[in-house]
Amino acid sequence: MPTRTSAIPPSPPTQNRLLAALPEADYQRLLPHLESVALPLGWAVYESGGRMDHVYFPTDGIVSLLYVMESGESAEIAVTGPEGLVGISLFMGGESTTSRAVVQSEGHAYRLPARFLRAEFERGGQLQHLLLRFTQALITQMSQTAVCNRHHAVEQQLCRWLLLSLDRLPANELHMTQELIANMLGVRREGVTEAAGKLQDAGLIHYRRGHITVLDRPGVEKRVCECYAVVKREADRLLMH
Amino acid sequence: MPTRTSAIPPSPPTQNRLLAALPEADYQRLLPHLESVALPLGWAVYESGGRMDHVYFPTDGIVSLLYVMESGESAEIAVTGPEGLVGISLFMGGESTTSRAVVQSEGHAYRLPARFLRAEFERGGQLQHLLLRFTQALITQMSQTAVCNRHHAVEQQLCRWLLLSLDRLPANELHMTQELIANMLGVRREGVTEAAGKLQDAGLIHYRRGHITVLDRPGVEKRVCECYAVVKREADRLLMH
DNA sequence: TTCCCTATGTTCGGTACCCCGCATATGGGT
DNA sequence: ACCCATATGCGGGGTACCGAACATAGGGAA
Predict the structure, then answer these.
(1) C-beta atoms of A142 and B142 within 8 A
(2) Read out DSSP for B12-78?
(3) pLDDT tens digits for A86-97?
(4) Which residues lie below 8 Å from residue A84, measured CB to CB, with a gap of 6+?
(5) Chain C positions with any atom < 7 A from a protein CB
(6) How far is it, in rounded angstroms, from Cα B156 to Cα B158?
């Protein structure tokens, strides 16, 4: 019997917005080297400091970049879905990063071996342009995460996290426990329980054992801090083609 | 009578480590377009969302990237000195960023008009390599700032901030009020007063009205959180030539 | 159906930091 | 030498979040 993951059929590469934005000739050059892979929930696409062999272009699903401290505490740095790619250090030149990349919402990706990515990047064409602009959008997200962590309450951060996730999913339901959300936000699970409870009481979301449904997105947008809009606007500006 | 800023003579461009690391031919190509400018304390090298015409390669002094919120609260995202440059969005493709860049410690820089930077970047040579690796180091710093903001106490963050600043200065004295440090760390001034007081009582630092001297750097390194070492190690790895 | 793992709900005390207000003192400018 | 803008010191009260411990309940597996 197929698992839930393999029950969802892979999408074509053009479901990834970076691949979709490539000129036809560039796309055709990459296509033979793209390999479809599943992104099962919880899988570490790469580990902190680990060597990377591929970049991953998600077509569905969400990948979180998170940092785990010596003490075991963790915090999400940024999040990527079908609008981007995982593995920027391969073209930035570092080969590895200090953060982990973990599948937060299962899905699929096309992966490209590092040498083909580098070859195409060094042509200096549209792919290079797209990857660098995406990287800048990621930088904005990281910056805003730093600011948000400093100044905003858990409830606002939860709203931000929900909206960023929703933007990368086709439905308005997330497959996620409060415990895992707490790990992402770097707070206690009870803090998430309390914030989620308030949002549910207000009729904005509904949750049950590992599932969260956003019922009233405009309502959530009213409670979120400015950080969400800053990140969203900048991503739209940079990735609009 | 000369101001304190102009009393410090500008250094040669090779005091900037990125410029120093360029192959001779590349360096000679840029040299005619480099213009020496002073970096006076508090000057905004660029504003949030503002158009940028130059990149700045500091030879001395420190520039902070910081985000100012609607409420007026602020937080430092990252810091750059003679090891890097200010204005990554010019080659990343975005033209602007959501953060401001403010001179935190006065000094000098060589600036390069955007069009020359882009032309050289698009050659795909060593400059491109260096700038991208520097950008990845900056990303590490931003990530770690996010994590540190979430999990660490003000005293540890102050230690991190002191060490990051010291790494970019020739002396062990900073020209900085507790109020300004508080703006950088995104905490209240009193929080900095308390933390600095503890460090001074322990004999690690000495301060007086706008000046902080680090007396016992190993002692500060003992109190800092892991974030400093992570950022430092990654910067060394990425920028070692 | 039943069982049991695990997700969620709740409480308690503790603490780090916030907000506000004001006292003190330093040191550059005149 | 003096002044005064400004940097630093200090307090009291409030709150958001933490840490730990435990109760409840949902829902998948056998």
Answers:
(1) yes
(2) PGGGSHHHHTS-HHHHHHHGGG-EEEEE-TT-EEE-TT----EEEEEEEEEEEEEEE-TTS-EEEEE
(3) 999 999 999 999
(4) A17, A18, A58, A134, A137, A138, A239
(5) 6-11, 16-21, 26-28
(6) 5
CA separation (Å) from A102 to A87, A108, A183?
A: 12, 13, 12
For residue A95, CA distances in Å to A122, B136, B241 come to: 16, 10, 15
DSSP A84: S
Give the residues across from A205 on adjacent strands.
A214
**DSSP designation for A14:** G
Where does residue A35 fall: left (phi above 0), alpha (psi -120 to 50 degrees), or beta otherwise?
Answer: beta
Angstrom distance (rounded) from CA A221 to CA B138? 30
Give the confidence band of A240 by pLDDT, cuts at 50, 70, 90. confident
- Do the strands B100-113 and A211-214 form a parallel or antiparallel pair, or are they unpaired? unpaired
Q: What is the pTM of this model?
A: 0.95
Instruction: Return the pLDDT at A201.
Output: 95
Cβ of B154 < 7 Å from strand C?
A: yes
Contact across the interface for A147 and B92, Cβ inside 8 Å: no
pLDDT in tens, A113-166: 999 999 999 999 999 999 999 999 999 999 999 999 999 999 999 999 999 999
Report the amino acid identity of residue B10. Answer: P
CA distance A72 to A49: 16
Token representation of residue B92: 């990343």
